[in-house]
Design brief:
single chain; about 325 residues; alpha/beta; Cobalt-precorrin-4 Transmethylase, domain 1; Rossmann fold; five-stranded parallel sheet; four-stranded parallel sheet; 11 helices; about 40% helix; LytB/IspH; oxidoreductase
Length: about 325
Amino acid sequence: MKSPLTLYLAAPRGFCAGVDRAIKIVEMAIEKWGAPVYVRHEIVHNRHVVEDLRAKGAVFVDELDEVPDDRPVIFSAHGVPKSVPAEAARRNMVYVDATCPLVSKVHIEAERHFQNGLQLVMIGHAGHPETLGTMGQLPEGEVLLVETVEDVANIAPRDPDRLAYITQTTLSVDDTAEIVAALKARFPNIVGPHRKDICYATTNRQEAVKAIAGRIDALVVIGSQNSSNSRRLVEVGRAAGCPHGQLVNGAQEIDWRALEGTQAVGITAGASAPEILVEQVVEAFRARFDVTLIPVETAREDVEFKVPRILREPA
C-alpha cells in the first residue's frame, strides 16, 4: 500500500509574463526569419525551455562575435549591457531585445539617476546576467555592487550624499529589505526607486511559498540551478519554517530518500519553469504515494507584455 501524502501546490508558480514574452519572441523570430536564429545567452534560465527552443532552430551563444552578420540575434530576458546592441547596430545586424520590461524599468531608473548626478548602488548577485546587463547601462565605476548586508560597510562611494540604489528583480524580498535598511542606515540621503524593483512575479511566488511553508515537511522547487528566482524560493521556504528544500529540473532529479517519512510536501516552480514540469512532478508523487492534492493560491496574475514591433510586422 502507498503511504498517504498531502501535496500543497503553490500558486502563482511557473512562467511569468516576461518569460512568456521572451519565449514567444524566439518562436516568432524562427517563424519569421527561419532557422537558425541566434540567442545571446540562455533566453531564460531553464534547461527544458532552452532544449525545446534549440530543437526548433535556436542557437544559443555566449557572445555576439559568435553570431554571423546575416542572421538575426535575440538578447535574453535578463537584459544586456549597452555595448551589445551598439555592436549589433555597428554590424548592421537584425536584433531583437527580449529584455523583460520590468528589468528595462530598472535600466531606465539607473540612467535617470546617473543623469541627475547620482552614483548607483546595485543590490544583486555578481556575475548574474541581469546584474551584468544593468551595471552595463552606465560607465564603469558608476554602479557599485552589494550582495550582502556586510558588503554595505565596505563600499566607498565618491560622495556618500549623492547615491541611489537599484536591485536585481529576482532577489529574496526579505533579504533585500535587510540590505536596503543597511544602506539607509549608512547613507541616510540615498534615493530609492519610486516602486520596488523586485518584480511582481518574484514577490508573488515567494509569498505563496511562505503561505505553505508552515504546513509542509519538505518543499520541491522546480527550476534550474542557474535560475536566481528559483534558488530564492528554496531559501524563502527554509526561512519560513520548512525544514527541507530541493531545487530540481524535473521529476527525474527528486531525491526520494530525503522525502522518506514526510507527510506533507509543497510544490512550486520558478518563473522560468513550464507547467508541464509541475504536472510531471505531481504524477511522480502519485506513483509513489496516496496523494491528496491541495492547491493554495495567494494571488492572481493577469499581466501580459507585448512582443517587439519588428516581430509583428510582415517579413
